[in-house]
Design brief:
CATH topology of the largest domain in chain A: BirA Bifunctional Protein, domain 2
Helix content of chain A: 25-40%
Distance between the termini of chain A: 29 Å
Strand content of chain A: 15-25%
Number of helices of chain A: 13
CATH class of the largest domain in chain A: Alpha Beta
Structural class of chain A: alpha+beta
Shape of chain A: elongated
CATH architecture of the largest domain in chain A: 2-Layer Sandwich
Oligomer: homodimer
């Protein structure tokens, strides 16, 4: 990156170079324009801009650059003339891709749309260019490879990037338009979840992640050294959100990490994921809870459809999928009904197994539905039994594109019945004493559920691996970066 | 709770009793009115209501109850007459405090305001009363003791409740008007933080809590068993939010738990707390970052002042404090300036120690200020040195009522300087390799900070222990409930 120009006097030598590291030496009174704001209205203006070198191509006395900011990019030109010397063009052409530069340039309207850039109607004629941060010459992965749809370009021998390479170099992989879109949409899911529930009168709570006893019976839990003793990482905020209901908060939600020490290496399991949790008191029937949750999901789907269409389209370019379909009101089937229906359609499954199938999606033309009334035996001990049939329970799962995204139920709010159920599940009563005691001082009937954020994003976008919607995924084999 | 009325025929026997457990037996078409909606406009209406028995007092042929929902309560009366028998009054009088009941009652306007209730203009004349959930007869703490201001009633021998009793029985302690107000305000802080930053173009990110290497050098970190290896709990989202900046997200925030294995038993330390974290790229000077953060804090202070006045007043009744004062723009002093000023005022402190004092608050009449330019030696290795004086750094703390709530800085975005600084701090380069590598592919100048949610709530409300603003606090001695 250092050049010696001993033999030529360079008239433009103050117009380019590598800047000293920005260490807050001065408060420059300089407005930096955003790439997305480069439209024909700015034509013929001299502007400053900071962006990455997305691509660069030298051609005789000129160098074409594509400058990128997030999902936006613009074509820029450095050409030998009265504002740029041969040396300056050479300097620009030699800047490593992904380096960050400050450029001063005139915005020019173009005759023919630049199809390869987000800003199609203008280009920049660069008059000054300074490197703010240099990228290494060799990138561990190329952005254009990383956004290539699966299979495309295979015959030309063009590369795609495998998942481990992506994740190992996540800081580059996250720069692709696809990644930018996925995680902006994820941010939107959280916001829609919270805003919808806040409007419904829910209160946000913060629950501890380090706990003294494994709340759900003891399996699949991570152990933490805690000073001279040991503790566990919470597998869910279950106990705490229920305590908040017993403490009169009436309707609560929380967004936070949950930890599962399951040695599962599937497309939909993570050892740490973000739980969107809901718990609420109800009056007489737990379907009041189902209605609140399904309405919240529908508000999320609508918000995404209406406000994140650009992001959805961007992801679709690389990973094509059908638009997400949902009904109002949400389809709710009983578990046994669904099993019978699937049986009729020729799909066999154990009567008391988890039920996962896309068949219902096709039968009812919806990508979102609820299965209600699961067999009691397959649910946690704190699940309320069905009042009419003790083999079943007041519990439900919710599905997106045929995969489970939420598990929930009416909870047992009576300490005697809860004790009986825990004993039936052979749970050590001593370990869940404080949980059971929470219900001894008056507890309203209540229910709720926990939603996996990464699964919601994956399935909404029709992706096929939950690692695509977790910024820094954790599984039994991956703890970095 | 079982009564035998063998000798009297009770004409009202269907009008009271203990309900069977609500197990979602039926969808009752019954509207339950909220206590806060009980106003004179509802006078003479017959309504249904679900609430807790807050207090109960039998007096001859009648029983006065106070019924409570969260911070709202209303007086109710069961009196022998054509709608209630002697037995029914006796039944009502014997319901344990904190039990949850359904009542059918006529709303009556009262002549004289009921000063002891939130609903002062009406009372309820109960015609039916059913227990939905029974509380045990003995409560581990009394709500009226739990909201008594310190010192008050001491001469009459009235109890207050100590902190451990509160925390051991948090499910009851959280029912007090003070607790309800604190945690509703806390929910508001999170919402204001996120809404302000979202408006400023920040994106919410989710960062992993289980990490493979202790990011900040290795001290004070909790160890987790992770399948056949071990891992750590993140002491901050530092690495990850910086990676997001290097990945072009430009401005990010996150809200989530952070873990500190410090064996500190002070009023302001927790081993697990909620971090409100910010990181952003800036153009030329890190004061752009300070301005964004201080403006965010000011928006939070204004939002609380304007929308949470009821909660602030409620907490003030038990814990009196002055309203929180802040200036616009926020006061920013250089660290050395502040030390010199305090020296002049007679307060001595080491030149390179953490500076904590309420003096500045008094000198400038503000409860919120920034100290800028800390000595480099007291800051983490990734802190950018001051370009003009290598003894100092581009770092800052923010204070509320004289106590630190945020620590932040411009970060070193150059991998060579970062390596040099890590070596100077004797940090094993191998362990932070992926962190340093994040900056090798072009990194914009950036800075940020981390705010402690519980401290912000504590100090805004003028409370004196961070355990009051953590629902389920964790410290070296407390892991439950």
């Amino acid at each position: 990156m250092f050049f010696l120009f001993l033999f030529f006097k360079d008239f433009a030598k103050d117009r380019y170079g590598v800047s000293v590291m920005v260490q807050s030496q001065q408060k420059l009174d300089r407005v930096l324009v955003r790439v997305q704001d480069l439209t024909p209205e700015k034509a013929d203006q001299l502007i400053w801009l900071r962006a990455r070198i997305h691509t660069s191509r030298a051609k005789g006395k000129q160098c074409f650059l594509v400058l990128r900011q997030q999902q936006f990019n613009v074509q820029a030109l450095v050409a030998v003339g009265d504002r740029a010397s041969k040396q300056m063009v050479k300097f620009a052409a030699n800047i490593n891709k992904e380096s960050i530069v400050d450029v001063e340039a005139v915005v020019r309207k173009v005759e023919q749309k630049i199809e390869s850039c987000s800003q199609q109607d203008v280009e920049l004629h660069i008059e000054r260019i300074f490197v703010i941060s240099q990228a290494e010459p060799r990138l561990p992965l190329q952005l254009e490879d990383a956004i290539r749809p699966d299979g495309e370009g295979e015959e030309e021998g063009r590369a795609t990037v495998n998942q481990d390479t992506r994740l190992d170099n996540r800081v580059i992989d996250l720069r692709t338009t696809t990644s930018q879109a996925i995680f902006r949409l994820q941010s939107g899911v959280c916001q829609l979840f919270r805003d919808t529930l806040t409007k419904k009168g829910f209160v946000e709570i913060q629950t501890p992640k380090i706990i003294s006893a494994a709340s759900e019976g003891g399996a699949n839990v991570f152990t933490v050294s805690y000073f001279k003793t040991s503790a566990y990482l919470a597998q869910s905020p279950q106990l705490y959100k229920q305590m908040c209901i017993c403490a009169d908060f009436d309707k609560v939600f929380c967004v936070g990490p949950v930890f599962r020490a399951e040695d599962s290496n599937t497309h939909r399991h993570l050892t740490e994921f973000v739980g969107l949790d809901i718990e609420m008191a109800f009056n007489y029937h737990y379907h009041e809870v189902i209605d609140s949750i399904t309405d919240t999901m529908v508000q999320i789907f609508k918000g995404l459809r209406d406000n994140f269409q650009t992001e959805i389209q961007t992801v679709n370019k690389q990973f094509p999928s059908e638009p997400f379909k949902f009904l109002e009101p949400t389809l709710r089937l009983e578990y046994t009904e669904a099993v019978a229906m699937l049986h009729e359609a020729g799909v066999e499954m154990g009567d008391e197994d988890d039920l996962r199938s896309a068949c219902i999606t096709h039968l009812y033309d919806t990508d979102f539905y609820v299965l209600d009334k699961y067999p009691l035996a397959v649910r946690p001990f704190y699940t309320m039994p069905d009042p009419n049939n003790p083999k079943y329970s007041n519990s439900y799962d919710m599905f997106m594109r045929g995969e489970e995204i939420l598990s929930g139920a009416q909870r047992v709010h009576d300490p005697e019945l809860l004790t009986e159920r825990a004993l039936h599940h052979q749970i050590d009563l001593e370990k869940i004493k404080s949980y059971i005691d929470s219900f001894r001082y008056g507890a309203p009937p209540h229910g709720g559920g926990g939603i996996g954020l990464e699964r919601v994003c994956m399935l909404y976008l029709g992706l096929h691996n939950v690692r695509q919607t977790s910024m820094f995924p954790r599984d039994p084999k991956r703890l970095t970066p």
